[in-house]
């Protein structure tokens, strides 16, 4: 009989040697396994035996490895961290998590919305921003997005929204994108989605990094202090690295360059100790303020401009630990808007109210058991006691007879179990909003009727480049609408209520006549523009947390290369060397310099700025390499800084990278330029709507 264990080198002995002192391989039930290469057969070439419990268990478990993916937000990346409260807000909230100086463990999961778990990281899409705070008073989940408003006002529309945006029901495409018939059919028939559409068509949905986007709790919530006094609140996450987005052409090309662009970026930052941080901010207001606004604060399609109610920073979150296992943690984490702690409370926002129902169902369906709270990533870090018992996959072993209350077991010397506490969560009992009490009505409040004023506010708060991006996104997306010819004009008819110029640009871009203006449920009003809504007006002049790609080839000047690397690293950015061969290039001083990435697999879209350091001979060689020409062409087209050695000029010329403020030599000017994008360049490189 042939012994594959020895003759192939794949056998148990060889494995043990390779893994040193590794633990002994066992079955799930602890039985040591002697052969993990061959199943048990009846004769050397005979059929496999039913008796082979090792094979059966291994394949059985493998066959059941997958659980249902999330219906939305299926693709995500998670990390552990800590939240530290930095301000005293005890006058507003009694929550322990907000006690000044308190440190609370957190788990965060960022996600795209529409695509499946294996889809790409950089489609035009909203990003989920869900934070689980393991507070000493129980878990608090702030399950938000990177956009402060939502598509719909009432949770009853959520299944329609999700069905419309996900891949179409019969053909199962497109994956992870809204540019298709059914989404725009639905959206053009839902005027209340217009405000969120403005955000979705802006560069907010093209974040450069998960570390460089804002987060929002979206709904109005309540803070409750020790006296039971409630205030309204909206939650904001502000990234320490500033907000930065890519542009559409870059995001498209990133899909080809690196499917895992955001996941990798998050992992590598944490892995290398560049811990991402966000400040938590609150906008606090009262009923009198709410009543005085021209919109309803319970309407999730509305925001409160920061210029009207400033954001007060109350703490900082630092993500400092990658997960040990993606499935066990990032996939199994279960967020519930109903996870709330004393000191915070819900509002009557009808979207939030619907969410309070939905998430519990989802977790049971995804994780298969009502005991999903026992999975380590979901379990509270504080003690947890109640009389809930049994159920599938019960992993705890409650002791004694106390599985009911009231009981008098203690009188008999037995464990009686937990008791209610006055300090426990108590719903705020005050008139806190319109329709707090009243008749049962299947109705939308009249105060929810204005669908366009804030869409206009958003559009008019953007700078000219951002407005051009929004108009162009509408054109791109609506151009992808196929047979439903009525849809683009219907959408443009809605946009006329937002801004006539925007509607005209979109109609022109589509090559259609300007349709009649859609009748608005309520005429929009002009609100004072809010600079806080613009990315460009808030971008940080920094290289921190970013990366510079440095293209080199044989003959590159060693001193010039080292100077650029040093200058980039001094700014807390990463210098990544790209060369035609990953083994590296032979520099001017005769030394070999290893590359971090091979040119063909490291296009310039994965960097924030590029340096091209070539000798005459190196440049001559790269003029014949399309990937090198494309490297410069895309960096220029994506409005990035390009620092180049004098000898690299022919490559820039071939790439059409004309001299401008962002095209510099390799000195200080390059580092200064690399902190910015050159949006003024854009009209020279592409026609925008
Ligand atoms: Fe939701 C997941 C955010 C409205 C129903 N939602 C989910 C996640 C985020 C959000 C970040 C992913 C959590 C994770 O990483 O595991 N959802 C929002 C925001 C909304 C919103 C900011 C509006 C302000 N969602 C919303 C409504 C409903 C749902 C109105 C249903 C009535 N959401 C779900 C869900 C999901 C979910 C189906 C899928 C996976 C999950 O819950 O755990 O229950």
TrEMBL record:
User: Alphabetically, which GO biological process terms does the record hold?
Assistant: hydrogen peroxide catabolic process; response to oxidative stress
Query: Is Oxidoreductase one of the keywords?
Result: yes
Q: Does the keyword Signal apply?
A: no
Q: Which residues bind heme?
A: 70, 109, 158, 355, 359, 366
Documented EC number(s): 1.11.1.6
Q: Any idea which UniProt keywords this protein has? A: Heme, Hydrogen peroxide, Iron, Metal-binding, Oxidoreductase, Peroxidase
Citing just one GO molecular function, the answer is: metal ion binding
Which SUPFAM superfamilies does this UniProt record tie to the protein?
A: Class I glutamine amidotransferase-like, Heme-dependent catalase-like
Name the top EC class. Answer: oxidoreductase
Q: Region (Disordered) spans which residues?
A: 1-21, 402-421
Question: Matching Pfam families, A to Z?
Answer: Catalase, Catalase-rel, Catalase_C
Q: What does this protein do?
A: Decomposes hydrogen peroxide into water and oxygen; serves to protect cells from the toxic effects of hydrogen peroxide.
The name on file for this protein is Catalase
Biological source species: Sphingomonas panacis
């Amino acid at each position: 009989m042939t012994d594959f264990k020895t003759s192939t080198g794949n056998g148990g002995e060889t494995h043990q040697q390779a893994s040193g002192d590794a633990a002994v391989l066992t079955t799930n039930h602890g039985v040591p396994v002697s052969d993990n290469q061959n199943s048990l057969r009846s004769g050397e070439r005979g059929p496999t035996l039913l008796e082979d419990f090792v094979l059966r268990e291994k394949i059985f478990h493998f066959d059941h490895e997958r659980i249902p993916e999330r219906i939305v937000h299926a693709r995500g990346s998670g990390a552990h961290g800590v939240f530290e409260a930095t301000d005293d807000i005890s006058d507003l909230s009694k929550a322990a998590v907000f006690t000044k100086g308190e440190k609370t463990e957190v788990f965060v999961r960022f996600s795209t919305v529409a695509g499946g778990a294996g889809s790409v990281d950089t489609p035009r899409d909203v990003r989920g921003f869900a934070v689980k705070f393991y507070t000493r008073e129980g878990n608090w989940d702030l399950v938000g997005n990177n956009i402060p408003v939502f598509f719909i006002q009432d949770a009853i529309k959520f299944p329609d929204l999700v069905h419309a945006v996900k891949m179409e029901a019969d053909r199962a495409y497109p994956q992870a994108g809204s540019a298709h018939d059914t989404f725009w059919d639905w959206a053009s028939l839902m005027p209340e989605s217009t405000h969120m559409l403005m955000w979705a068509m802006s560069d907010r949905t093209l974040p450069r990094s998960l570390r460089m986007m804002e987060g929002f709790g979206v709904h109005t919530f309540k803070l409750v202090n020790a006296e039971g006094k409630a205030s309204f609140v909206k939650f904001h996450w502000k990234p320490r690295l500033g907000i930065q987005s890519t542009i559409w052409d870059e995001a498209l090309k990133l899909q080809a360059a690196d499917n895992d662009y955001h996941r990798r970026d998050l992992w590598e930052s944490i892995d290398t100790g560049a811990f991402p941080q966000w400040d938590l901010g609150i906008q606090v207001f009262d009923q009198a303020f709410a009543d005085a606004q021209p919109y309803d604060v319970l309407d999730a399609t509305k925001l409160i401009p920061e210029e009207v109610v400033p954001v007060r920073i109350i703490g900082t979150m630092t993500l400092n630990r990658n997960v040990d296992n993606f499935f066990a943690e990032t996939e199994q984490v279960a967020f519930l808007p109903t996870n709330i702690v004393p000191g915070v409370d819900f509002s009557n926002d009808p979207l939030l109210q619907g969410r309070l129902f939905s998430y519990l169902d989802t977790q049971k369906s995804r994780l298969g058991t009502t005991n999903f709270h026992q999975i380590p990533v979901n379990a509270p870090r504080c003690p947890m006691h109640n009389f809930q018992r049994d159920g599938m996959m019960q992993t705890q072993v409650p002791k004694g007879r106390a599985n009911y209350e009231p009981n008098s077991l203690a009188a008999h010397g037995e464990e009686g179990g937990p008791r209610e506490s006055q300090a426990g969560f108590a719903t705020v009992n005050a008139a806190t909003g319109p329709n707090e009490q009243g008749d049962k009505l299947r109705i939308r409040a009249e105060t929810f009727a204005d669908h366009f004023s804030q869409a206009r506010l958003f559009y008019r708060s953007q700078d000219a480049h951002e407005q051009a991006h929004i108009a162009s996104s509408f054109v791109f997306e609506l151009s992808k609408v196929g047979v439903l010819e009525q849809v683009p004009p219907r959408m443009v008819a809605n946009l006329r209520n937002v801004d006539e110029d925007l509607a005209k640009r979109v109609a022109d871009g589509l090559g259609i006549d300007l349709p009649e203006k859609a009748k608005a449920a309520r005429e929009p009003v002009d609100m004072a523009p809010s600079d806080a809504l613009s990315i460009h007006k808030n971008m940080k002049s920094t290289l921190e947390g970013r990366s510079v790609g440095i293209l080199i080839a044989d003959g590159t000047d060693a001193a010039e290369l080292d100077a650029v690397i040093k200058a980039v690293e001094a700014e807390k950015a990463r210098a990544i060397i790209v060369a035609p061969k990953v083994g590296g290039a032979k520099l001017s001083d005769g030394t070999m310099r290893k590359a971090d990435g091979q040119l063909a697999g490291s296009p310039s879209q994965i960097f924030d700025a590029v340096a091209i350091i070539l000798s005459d001979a190196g440049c001559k060689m790269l003029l014949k390499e399309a990937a090198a020409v494309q490297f410069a062409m895309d960096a220029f087209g994506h409005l990035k800084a390009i620092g180049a050695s004098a000898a690299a000029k022919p490559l820039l010329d071939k790439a059409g990278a004309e001299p401008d403020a962002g095209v510099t030599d390799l000195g200080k000017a390059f580092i200064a330029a690399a902190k910015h994008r050159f949006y003024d360049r854009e009209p020279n490189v592409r026609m925008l709507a």
